[in-house]
Amino acid sequence: MTEILFAFITILTFVYFITLNFLENGLNKIKIPSQIKKGQVKVKVTVIVSARNEEKNLPTLIDCLAAQNHENIDFESILVNDRSEDLTEKIISNQAKIDSRFKALHIKERVDGFAPKKFAIDSAINMATGDIILLTDADGRPGKNWVKSMITYFENGADMLLGYAPYNVKNSDSITKKILALEYFSHASIAAATTGLGFPLTCVGTNMAYRKKVYQQIGGFGEYKSFISGDDDLFLTRVREAGNYKICYATDPNTHVYNAPPNSFKQFVHQRLRYASKGFDYPAKVTFGLIIYILFNLSIFCGVFYGLTGSAPILKTTLLAIGIKTVFEYKFTLKAAAVIGDRRFTNYYFITSVLHIPYILFFGILGQFKLSVGPRNPQNTALLSEC
To answer: Taking the model in full, what pTM does it have?
Structure first.
């Protein structure tokens, strides 16, 4: 047992060390595109928002979208009411009446074989007149130059664009929210690094975009259309696996779309289990990588307990592995923070690192049992009052 655990910890630590350095190299390849002189032809853009029971979040988002700087952009926004039972339908209809840039789309019932949010997005894309589709959620808070800055990447040749959606957490907020913000940032750092390497692994539906023709050419959500989750990263998987599209990561601060962190432990657990639930839905090579990552953390977890029961060599090896993991993860985090432009809570890394291994094991393993894959936007989402 001792020899096997020693081998596991040693080999997987080396693999993880190499992987982190490889990912850091991916970050070095992320660039902000140069501004291109505008021509006479306007870029046609459609912003899509799918909302279910979002009467509290929608008004502020609508204000953010209405305030967009759309110089030389033919801008429209399709607001989809997905079977809401509150005032969402009324809010969307009223906005479409008073501002011609907004269009209302009301969905009254579910469609067999099509996950609700994916059907809402698919319906809106079919209705869209824009050549470029931007997506965000009702609790997203884009700045006034969001659309304009996102379009710059497409003018530089992007076919799909992954954006950063940081939690709106202030210095006066609790340490718990700051740790959550840093943990959420880690997802973005992996997304940016793997995009730089040419093999993007993940993204968030709160801030992403793609050409309409890309969606049409690959057949939309395809084999994933019935999956409740994955309107973002599983769609990304289809685009990436198609092999002939340029996928970029947006680091320009103007492209950031803030959103609210979970406002309860229950909501946090629900959300992270949903994220983790797709582990075996990805292509085999991605699933294999996730399994290796979980085994690495499991070997360290077991090494600590086995070492504390009396095996000094295992304990020393495990502590060395934890030290290597911590130092090089921190180095990677600082690099990602510099590239993405969000250094707010990197000082909390060492507190977060203590929780990281049990966190990975809990969600990584339990998520595969599909224990919580419900709605993306629960009604108790914390509110953001400004763009």
So the answer is: 0.90
